[in-house]
Amino acid sequence: MKKKGRLYYADWRDERGVRKRKGFTNRAATEKYTRERRREVAAKKARPGVRAR
């Protein structure tokens, strides 16, 4: 998480390793969103036989 101005930025990488960011005004919402995205990507990477396009 990064704070810039009035926004807190959620920071994660998708299943291909591309960095993604999204801005929020609330720190708690930012942390929750970051955890959800990282958990989602980890689940996609853990599935055998599924390849990113």
Element layout with pairings:
Layout: E1 2-4, E2 7-13, E3 19-24, H1 27-46
Antiparallel strand pairs: 1-2, 2-3
Walk me through the structure:
There is one protein chain. This protein is of the alpha+beta class. Helices cover 38% and strands 30% of the residues. The mean pLDDT is 86.
Features of this protein?
single chain; 53 residues; 3 strands; 38% helix
Poorly predicted parts: none
- Secondary-structure element series: EEEH
Task: Give, in spatial order, the strands making up the sheet with the most strands.
Answer: 1-2-3
Radius of gyration: 13 Å
Q: Strand pairing plus helix content: what structural class? A: alpha+beta
Task: Give the amount of beta strand, in percent.
Answer: 25-35%
How far apart are the termini?
A: 27 Å
For the largest beta-sheet, the strand count, sense and barrel status come to: 3 strands, antiparallel
* Quaternary structure state of the chains depicted: single chain
* Domain module tally: 1
Mean pLDDT equals 86
| Helix count, DSSP H or I runs of 4 or more residues | 1
Query: Helix fraction?
Result: 25-40%
Shape: elongated
Number of strands: 3
